[in-house]
Amino acid sequence: MDKRPVLAGDIGGTKTALALYNPDRTLLREATFINRQFSDISEVIGNFLAGEKHLPGRVCLGAAGPVRDNRVRMTNLDWVIDAEKICSCFPFDSVRLVNDLVATTAGVQHLPADGLLAVNPKERKPQGTIAVLAAGTGLGQSFAAWHENRLYPFPSEGGHATFAPRNQQQIELLTFMLKSKKHVSVEQVCSGLAIPDLFTFISSACPPPDWLNRQLRHQPDQTPTLIRAAVNALTGGPACEAAVRTMFLFVDILAAEAANLTLKSLATGGVYIGGGIPPRILPFFDTTRFMAFFSRGSFSDLLAAIPVHIILASETALTGARELAMTKR
């Protein structure tokens, strides 16, 4: 048995989390880095491992983008990550690159009970396929199926599939988005990058308060401010109907897309919604409203019986990357 540590990583469009684990899976150390402060992932890894006496042997990195031949060009970040290049920089035995949602999906089955929040608390099928969506900088998707008592995660770029509006408001949103884009993907209306566009659309019929406009005026990334304004308004803070409507629209689209992935993968084992945004907007996950967008169409009864959970544990992708590093392919 290899007694060296294992290095796991979760590389998103905005930040990278790295963690070092003992072979018995106990955490040694964890750190988060802002991507724009580094030129590439090797620089991040070098910073994390600086001064480390016992370097890892096996490495698994989940990255936000399609992985081909152990190489990935990041979707929302100007990085190309190559396992062979990483191995040339460090004395690792192996480096495995996977889609970040594959890592998240691999980690879901290892979550503690308090790492999840039920939106639709139904009973899952023990050997059922599971579906995972993650709304962060982008909108990641994955699913996992059982084979010989083992759950195998599969990559997907479903977030880049075409946005299909569900009601008149969303039809108008699509029309608004098509004024500036030739193709509108789900990610472009349901992600951290999308929230300012949703807000602009909503603001045309629901003007925001002056105090919010002042806050947004000089901010390159408006999403955190809009989320904070919406949550505060919904929970008794300063009124901000435009921000509240923006986040309800976001969750409506997320619910509909979660149903799409559920049907395509027949996820009777449950749907898990992760990423950095959902845990920050929990007051907007009203079960009745969410299920009205999730459970619809010819298989509404099937969808109504699917358990839906929000992933609260921020280390899910790291846990999955750890497991994948320790597992033979």
- In the residues, how many domains can be counted? 2
SS-based structural class? alpha/beta
Residue runs with pLDDT of under 50 for 5 or more positions: none
> Could you tell me how far the N terminus lies from the C terminus, measured between alpha carbons in angstroms?
17 Å
Shape, principal axes of CA atoms: globular
**How much of the residues is beta strand, in percent?**
15-25%
* Strand elements, count: 14
Helix content: 25-40%
CATH architecture name of the largest domain:
3-Layer(aba) Sandwich
What is the fold-level CATH name, i.e. the topology of the largest domain?
Answer: Hexokinase, domain 1
Average pLDDT figure: 94
| Lateral strand order in the biggest sheet | 9-14-13-10-11-12
Cα-atom radius of gyration: 20 Å
Task: Map the helices and strands.
Layout: E1 6-11, E2 15-21, E3 27-34, H1 41-49, E4 58-63, E5 67-68, E6 71-73, E7 80-82, H2 83-89, E8 94-99, H3 100-108, E9 116-120, E10 130-135, E11 139-147, E12 150-156, H4 168-177, H5 195-203, H6 210-216, H7 223-234, H8 241-265, E13 270-274, H9 287-294, H10 300-304, E14 308-311, H11 316-326
Helix pairs in contact: 3-11, 5-8, 7-8, 8-9
